[in-house]
Request: fold
Amino acid sequence: MAPAAITLAAEAPKLSSANTGFMLICSALVLLMTPGLAFFYGGMVRVKSTLNMLMMSFVSIGIVTILWVLYGFSLAFGTSNGFIGFNSDWLGMSNVGLTELWDGYTIPIFVFMVFQMMFAVITPALISGAIADRVKFSAWALFVALWLTIVYVPVAHWVWGADGWAYKLGVIDFAGGTAVHINAGAGALGVILVIGKRVGFKKDPMRPHSLPLVMLGAGLLWFGWFGFNAGSWLGNDDGVGALMFVNTQVATAAAMLAWLAYEKIRHGAFTTLGAASGAVAGLVAITPSGGAVSPLGAIAVGAIAGVACAAAVGLKFKFGYDDSLDVVGVHMVGGIIGSLLIGFFATGKGQSAATGVFYGDHSFTQLWKQFAGVGAVLGYSLVASAVLAFLLDKTLGMRVTEDEEVSGIDQAEHAETAYDFSGAGGGVVSSVSAALAGTSKKVDA
Amino acid sequence: MKLITAVVKPHRLDEIKEALQAFGVHGLTVTEASGYGRQRGHTEVYRGAEYTVDLVPKIRIEVLAEDEDAEQLIDVVVKAARTGKIGDGKVWSVPVETAVRVRTGERGPDAL
Reply:
């Protein structure tokens, strides 16, 4: 988030139609990332859990949107103390003027609120990739609501709130390397350590069922990410948003190529999944750093993240944790890489005057600040998410039964299947009475 | 009568069909199948995780023939299916007790 207001000392900012319009478009772009994520993940699971994977993202849009308007925005971006915010006028957006400006900026509070809402929507959705195939939909829905409240909201306040402790310390996180990606990645790790592996992990083949869907999802994420990153400057009056836009593109390209090169050398092929994953790793790593580094720095950030994440996705097999679709390996690792590399590659000519080890007076000061931000978010999210998953598991139960998991969570939890493979169109499920039996909760297919 | 079954590479289907038609066969049944012989499977890589895919896509063609045509028909199928590479498949025949044309009730060779 923008650390310095773009104003002349004496002059209060005025509402800018250009910035307001730009930010509304950026908000829509960020929203598009969540369906993009749904397809990115959905293509990677087996046929039998495609719909559940899509639905975990979509329901996050529903739940988080409502909670964000009711209290999330107030607690994340109000001022109160370094750990949590509060502003009673913003509860339900009940006492906010339509042209009332976000403090120090040229866009209305309403616009800032909805832009931030989209970040809050995608962050818990990111976690869903780690828990593929095996979590009760009701438990997931409750998890999203609680995780938003006790993990996302405080962490967003630390990093982006006007009185957040990390923000005041000078931790740089332009668009969410810590608050979104490390937060979601560490949260995913906490949850999977509690709920355990998929049935057949490391034994059964779990090939992605549709790489074209994965590529489509990666493309939508890439497109939407321009809103996520460039929009996070909340306007375009000083060119920093444009720098971020350029760096987003450059780092993503570098990371995709780096991942492909790594796996050609290690595994002998340029894979489609590698291209999609590399692009996402680059997007993640440039998210915190793109406002601080130069385009050449962005190439370095992307290339390092591409290789590091390509190597990190293998760790789950080594250590035996079932991070199904590599949320830890891509989002946590990519977020850490991007956040820490600010400490090396910050030029001092972008979003702030702070410089990294390779620039200015070659000081390590910014690097230590980045470590503090990374460590705090990682530790808090890991522990809080694990505790939350543990409590939900002991009460509601987090997992579907083994039988339901093996035969497919789509049928068990959603009473649907993703694809009709029968040539005739109806297959053996053509009974009209089943379709009309509105009273039965689930249609046995 | 004989039932001739061929499990062969999917892309040979058209050649086999044409060769059988030229020979005078009026009907056949094709199903998608998967399996392996000496060819074994192949390896796929997803984010560094290697999967050995044992079963390879094949098609299974079934044709009913009169006893005296069977050997020649097998030769026709084999010739059309062959690429010379490993994984070309197998063709075999088994005796059939009876066959009935459902529409007319004709039995035996008349049903073919």
In short: The radius of gyration of chain B is 17 Å. Chain B touches chain A through nine residues (CB under 8 Å). The longest strand of chain B covers residues 56-65. The mean pLDDT of chain B is 92.
